[in-house]
């Protein structure tokens, strides 16, 4: 049927009848019925078009409905829809080759999963088996997924309801100058003190008991905190000294988002394991995985790897990854992300920080930016309390509603909005989105004191 308000209402009613939604009180949600999407936009049945400044869950790096990726999925579906992971398949091997070609250093073997959380689960399993140790260190202000180990590693309130004391996870503080737990006054102090804190945590936990340290290269959902120069190299050195596996989680930051293929490329650091998902194929078909170093791969050369998934390396997912990675190279999409960030988004957001009393800090690079919204620039009190809900969250809810009224779909988390459009966004589209954001920020300004 043609898009109409009546069709939209029917789609929503059908959803509410049987679909159980993630992270939600089922009786309190009002999902927008979506009729279609293309490039940087999606639209509903009522004629409203939204510029997607959230890239859904920060995954549509290549934009919606890229014709080359759509065609590749169609062609693969006609050829071979599914086959078990144990077989050798052309499209899976090619996806692995293209990923290995892009990952840093000697991360040349690829274990495929269906998404990011499973990638984290398997990276942790590999690290534990490789070292024979149990504990894993992860950072506060992080997100690693919603399955058992991944949610325990997560350093935000989504962990609390699923926390299991026996999970063998210890949290520490990463560097974040604007809200420093170390009372640092500049990036160099923050870096030095964060590394000293990590050293102390390891000393008191027992270095011989720690299998891995996992970090998002640039923490994403937690606020896009670009680490200070030297921090990741420092963590690498600490891991080497103690025989600890270094895992970088690039599920959100990888595949072009930061203006490089991987965020690790900005820092010249190679982890032992790198987890990916989202941008690898922009989520056209569920896919994630772990890129594995030569040394860890060697551990499982004669000893079986005790992990697997029915859909590991699914042909439709791999075909969409091959088409995505080739299109990103041919169309200079990673370069576009870097250029738009440097020439359009970064300067515009910094100018907004000057004008708006509610914008405490602007952070980011590529198409990966955060606005830290505050009630007061001097005190840096967040616009809404940490983990706000209900009435406490009203200023952020008003801000999001203003964006949507203007035709922009924003990413909102706690007291932050992130500008995370597709890596394919044009300068004109970015400028349009930034203008809507600029106007919507007036609602946040009204709550400053
Ligand atoms: N790791 C990071 C850094 C993420 O941002 C996410 C999802 O947002 C995940 C892991 C979990 O990925 P998934 O939702 O595909 O399981």
UniProtKB/TrEMBL annotation:
Gene3D superfamilies for this protein: Aspartate Aminotransferase, domain 1, Type I PLP-dependent aspartate aminotransferase-like (Major domain)
An annotated Gene Ontology molecular function: transaminase activity
Annotated Pfam families: Aminotran_3 (PF00202)
Keywords, in A-Z order: Aminotransferase, Pyridoxal phosphate, Transferase
Organism superkingdom: Bacteria
InterPro entries: Aminotrans_3, Aminotrans_3_PPA_site, PyrdxlP-dep_Trfase, PyrdxlP-dep_Trfase_major, PyrdxlP-dep_Trfase_small
Family: Belongs to the class-III pyridoxal-phosphate-dependent aminotransferase family.
Protein name: Aspartate aminotransferase family protein
